[in-house]
Q: What sequence folds into this?
């Protein structure tokens, strides 16, 4: 799963004058399509932007496992139990892959994974808005796979050529697996859509609930909406290609026809494709709510963070027992 | 004993069928319950790498349960998903120790799960599972012998995973040793029915469906001895009765209510 490119925090410092030459070489490299590796010189705002982006992406994979995990032991058949377990495992695996990339970037600051976890628990590190939302029924397990992962595929494939080599390579694998996830989600959705009245009801109810969060998934169109946006910096540094709104349009293009063909509706009577403007017109989600959600004030933010905190504290003795000092004692 | 090569053939002999069916429920329910407990751990393991590894093992184990339920399906016991989700607690044949909750709290809220319990239980489980599988490769019921052979291709990796955890923690801090030790003592008080074969133990041995309880127990002790030195002095208790004969605890009710919640929410549904 994935992160929008919007986050708070202060502006990054400009490049110091004595590094101007290195900076120009760096820009020339990425503009020529070369990949930057961990030991290469990079501007400070590039490094810090990547750390934020990748640690948020990584931690969102891990927090993203939690909503679906709520349904894993409850999945209605053996096959579904196995499928969703494999899927959640993949998400944890993506988290691992990404945190390792982030850890390399953080080395100059003497930070590691422990710091990432601590930043998450202290609220300094944000996780993706969709994972602050509650799940109510089994249909949500399908919805997360189908549309949330569907949205993730759109965002992530947009960065498959990212200028930072380790992230770009991790994304290749992640995107391949996300395609399976979306198929897994779609299979759950199809069974519900073709099922009993109750199944169709929980499916529509789930879509109604997830709709605003799905629109928010890609982040606000511009900094005007929420005050900060790093999307321009990320485009300049060739991390991503498209703007938040372009990604959202691609998502609507791909999924709205599928939603309608299943006989489902979205809770927005104004939504339509404008032939002249060649884009989807839709009612904006409540971006103030979005701001609250990513400040860990969403409907399930506290409970999800609490789960991580319990797991972290509760297993402290295990981490201590595995530490080099303990093993050598 | 001559080989029984198909479900049809097994169904020709009523006593053989009863004994075989009972054993298959034990095998399926053990794997199903232990993998259900594993699925509750998802996302909560001590570190991310372990989460991924544990989940992988859990998926394999649930896959094994499914293979046994399918063998039961072949014996006209009902459809595999119904066998996994619908049977009431008294007809479950898993050993009581495997239904035990992962610790305090629930997987959705305040899961104070105990990694020492996870390590001890899974280590003992996989040790005994290996012994049983090896015995089953010689089973007179060839569909079961074939499955045992297949499962044995991956199961030793599961055992080795948990053995490493056990040894590492047992050679580390005093806190870790104490926690493991106390979970081991608890296990021995409840482990008695794990080593049993239930109502048809005599017939199972007689028909060469699996070797006898004494033989399995001795092989289990040999398997564990290198890791748990004093295993020969242990007397295995049955603090909560015998799951092989239908005795169970409220922890099983919690497991069944959770794992069948969606299944039961619409009985006409295809999921």
A:
């Amino acid at each position: 799963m994935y992160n929008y490119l919007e986050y708070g925090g202060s502006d990054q410092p400009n490049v110091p004058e004595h590094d101007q030459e290195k900076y120009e070489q760096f820009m020339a490299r990425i503009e020529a399509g070369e990949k930057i590796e961990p030991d290469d010189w990079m501007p400070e705002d590039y490094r810090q932007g990547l750390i934020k982006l990748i640690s948020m992406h990584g931690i969102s994979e891990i927090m993203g496992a939690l909503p679906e995990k709520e349904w894993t032991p409850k999945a209605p058949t053996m096959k579904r139990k196995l499928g969703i377990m494999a899927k959640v495992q993949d998400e944890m695996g993506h988290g691992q892959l990404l945190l390792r990339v982030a850890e390399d970037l953080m080395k100059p600051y003497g930070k590691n994974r422990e710091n990432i976890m601590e930043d998450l628990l202290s609220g300094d590190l944000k996780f993706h808005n969709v994972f602050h939302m509650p799940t109510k029924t089994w249909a949500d397990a399908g919805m997360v796979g189908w549309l949330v992962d569907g949205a993730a595929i759109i965002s992530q494939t947009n960065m498959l050529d990212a200028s930072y080599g380790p992230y770009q390579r991790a994304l290749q694998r992640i995107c391949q697996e996300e395609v399976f996830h979306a198929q897994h989600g779609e299979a759950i959705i199809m069974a519900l859509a073709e099922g009993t009245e109750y199944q169709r009801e929980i499916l529509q109810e789930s879509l109604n609930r997830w709709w605003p969060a799905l629109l928010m998934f890609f982040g606000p169109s511009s900094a005007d909406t929420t005050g900060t946006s790093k999307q321009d910096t990320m485009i300049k540094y060739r991390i991503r290609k498209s703007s938040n709104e372009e990604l959202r349009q691609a998502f609507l293009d791909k999924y709205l026809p599928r939603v309608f063909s299943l006989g489902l509706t979205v809770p927005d009577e104004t939504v339509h494709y404008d032939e002249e403007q060649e884009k989807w017109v839709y009612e904006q989600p409540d971006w103030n709510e979005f701001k609250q959600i990513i400040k860990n004030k969403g409907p399930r933010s506290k409970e999800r963070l609490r789960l991580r905190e319990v797991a972290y504290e509760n297993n402290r003795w295990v981490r201590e027992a595995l530490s080099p000092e303990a093993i050598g004692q | 004993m001559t080989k029984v090569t198909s479900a049809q053939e097994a169904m020709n002999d009523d006593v053989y069928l009863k004994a075989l069916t009972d054993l298959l429920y034990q095998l399926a329910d053990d794997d199903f319950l232990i993998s259900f407990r594993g699925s509750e751990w998802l996302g909560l393991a001590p570190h991310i790498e372990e989460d991924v590894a544990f989940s992988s093992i859990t998926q394999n184990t649930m896959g094994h349960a499914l293979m046994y339920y399918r063998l039961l399906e072949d014996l006209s016991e009902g459809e595999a998903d119904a066998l996994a989700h619908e049977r009431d607690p008294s007809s479950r044949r898993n050993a009581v120790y495997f239904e035990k909750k992962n610790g305090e709290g629930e997987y959705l809220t305040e899961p104070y799960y105990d990694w020492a319990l996870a390590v001890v239980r899974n280590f003992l489980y996989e040790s005994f599972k290996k012994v049983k599988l090896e015995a089953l490769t010689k089973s007179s019921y060839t569909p079961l012998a074939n499955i045992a052979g297949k499962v044995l291709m991956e199961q030793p990796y599961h055992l080795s995973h948990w053995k490493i955890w056990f040894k590492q923690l047992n050679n580390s801090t005093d806190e870790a040793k104490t926690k493991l030790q106390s979970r081991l003592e608890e296990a021995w008080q409840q482990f008695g029915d794990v080593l049993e074969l239930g109502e048809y133990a005599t017939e199972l041995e007689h028909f060469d469906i699996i070797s006898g309880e004494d033989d399995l127990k001795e092989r289990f002790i040999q398997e564990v001895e290198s890791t748990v030195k004093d295993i020969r002095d242990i007397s295995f208790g049955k603090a909560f009765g015998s799951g092989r004969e239908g005795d169970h605890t409220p922890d099983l009710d919690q497991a069944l209510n959770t794992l069948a919640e969606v299944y039961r929410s619409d009985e006409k549904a295809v999921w």
Summary: Chain A touches chain B through 48 residues (CB under 8 Å). The beta strands of chain A are 272-274, 279-281. Residues 60 and 83 of chain A are 21 Å apart (CA to CA).
